[in-house]
Design brief:
- It is built from 8 helices and 12 strands.
- It is globular and about 45 Å long.
- The chain is α+β, with helices and mostly antiparallel strands and 299 residues long.
- The structure holds aspartic acid.
Length: 299
């Protein structure tokens, strides 16, 4: 039994758009390496906020997921990305929507959290903010993006709401929670389309009780109240962590959507649930040995 001060938890997801029959071994290995890195950070006293930013930034730069380098152009030919991050202890938050030409959108969202009176910046304004605040820009956007694992050219040209996203939630040894999420959105999306991911309270939420990161067809998450519905079910309606996730995911499903959620409670409990074929995910903590999987049940 660990004491309160050494308790920590970390959960990652690489999107709930996983397809049955596809081999995600490379992704699972990457998630396991990242989770081990995050475990070391949290054990060493890193904040949950720094840890979730680092986890998501590495997933964005890897090209393995539909976020950052693995993102595809919208119907107008531009790669527009969304990301958000929230600190549960202070409820400070930062987000960028439809941002272009940055290597790590989550680190721009973090700069919004740290340096802007705004919570969300979009489009050209977000891009200018990134530049002014020293975020790394993509030198050659025409040749930067790659197809992530499990995605073909055919997929990205079809406007059928196929999707992918990355996210992280963490509890640090000081007892503070944080959440971060980043996405290239859905394939075949129209210019200017913004999903749930950059919306604080929908794709991402953290407070003193819970940290949440969602993945799935964003329109449905927006229409169900997404992460904040889970937070309220958990804090106010008496749901267990698992029941709160199920409540929101069932609502998404009833409207015709699919997706998944990772969440951590103040006590360090981890929940990872989805109603799609699979969700690339990993978890580790002081009470949880490291797991990384896509389809197997691990709740
Ligand atoms: N939620 C993301 C969006 O709608 C996509 C995903 O999570 O797969 O933009």
């Amino acid at each position: 039994m660990v004491s309160n001060s050494s308790r920590f938890s970390l959960a990652l997801h690489g999107g709930a758009g996983a397809k049955t029959g596809e081999d995600y071994t490379v992704v699972e290995q990457h998630l396991a390496i990242l989770a081990a890195e995050g475990e070391e950070m949290l054990k060493g006293g890193a904040t949950s906020l720094d840890t979730v930013e680092k986890m998501v930034a590495e997933m964005e730069a890897s090209g393995l997921y539909v976020a950052g380098k693995g993102s595809a152009p919208n119907l107008a030919g531009a790669v527009e990305l969304d990301a958000s991050i929230m600190d549960g202890a202070t409820r400070n938050a930062g987000a960028v929507a439809a941002i272009t030409d940055v290597v790590r959108p989550i680190s721009v969202a973090r700069r919004v959290l740290d340096h802007s009176p705004s919570v969300m910046l979009a489009g050209n304004g977000a891009r200018s903010f990134a530049e002014v605040h020293g975020a790394e820009l993509i030198a050659d956007p025409e040749n930067y993006y790659v197809l992530p694992v499990g995605v073909s050219e055919d997929d990205i040209n079809v406007s059928d709401m196929q999707h992918g996203t990355v996210g992280a939630v963490a509890l640090d040894i000081k007892g503070n929670l944080a959440a971060a999420t980043s996405t290239g959105g859905v394939f075949g999306k129209p210019e200017g389309r913004v999903g749930d991911t950059p919306i604080i309270g929908i794709g991402t939420w953290a407070d003193e009780e819970i940290a949440i990161s969602c993945t799935g067809t964003g329109e449905y998450f927006i229409r169900t109240g997404g992460a904040l519905t889970i937070a309220n079910r958990f804090a106010l309606a008496g749901d267990t962590l698992s029941e709160a996730l199920q409540y929101m995911l069932k609502d998404v499903q009833s409207l015709g959507g699919d997706g998944g959620v990772i969440a951590i409670s103040r006590s360090g409990e981890i929940a990872m649930q989805y109603n799609s074929d699979g969700m690339k995910r990993a978890a580790v903590g002081s009470d949880q040995s490291l797991i990384a999987t896509t389809f197997a049940s691990c709740d």
